[in-house]
């Protein structure tokens, strides 16, 4: 078998894996539509999706489950791809949307809105909610972008190395975390409960409008990352090698970080904090698929979507009728999986 045939076989295997993951995502989506407090048959789902369902089924599918499923897929793609790009551009396997301070910036912004705009609320049953979610979302988005822009500005002005950008992200995250704790200390009981409620990553929050915004930003970001896939491959081979191939490494890093951070900021603002997806998905894909970003980016997207969708389905049904925030489940799952991946990587 010559080199060309070997290359075709290599590419064919990756495409087959991608098709298998796509089928798994489709089947997981159908299962997630059917399962819950009110179980639906495949016939009911088909009739509802084709516009022939009854009112109760249409309400459950179109207003409750389908927006949640699409949000899980979009958020899973966004977090996983952003993590893969950040790990490449920062040349650090621990880089993720959260190690550079994005989540802490969003948390600070949300806490600021809850404190100073008094948007927290509670029902007579004791259930906590945020009565002006758009205000909190806007401030969470501003806080997340502030964290990113500070790091990028430092990188631009002081020409920080990729390793120094990670350290700067940790420092900025610590600063925002301290600011959030100060506000929590002076908050009343209702405000404090509302802050804690917001930090739970919950896919049940966004409606179709928010899901549409997330989807549009995800699609354009994914197109950009796929377009730059060869530059990311060059970055993986080292700074000097990338420059010798004609890659503007500084511009590629800055724009990659900016687009990835914008993508994550939108998701964190609408959904809250969902941990570990952006950290472990790219690692798992690299272990089984290699380090070619032509395949890492699309396969990470599919894997992230499947992981978050399955996690949310489990969170909805494990102690039904109580629905757990998916952020709790991903944190429980993510920590041991990441430790396992670390051990596996350093054994090789």
From TrEMBL:
Q: Which keywords appear in this protein's UniProt record, sorted alphabetically?
A: Cell membrane, Membrane, Transmembrane, Transmembrane helix, Transport
InterPro entries hit by this protein:
ABC_BtuC-like, ABC_transptr_permease_BtuC
The species this protein was found in: Candidatus Infernicultor aquiphilus
UniProt name for this protein: Iron ABC transporter permease
For this chain, the family text in UniProt reads: Belongs to the binding-protein-dependent transport system permease family. FecCD subfamily.
Q: Does the keyword Hydrolase apply?
A: no
Its localization reads: Cell membrane
Chief location bin: membrane
What molecular function does GO assign, one term?
A: transmembrane transporter activity
This protein's membrane topology, according to the annotation, is:
Multi-pass membrane protein
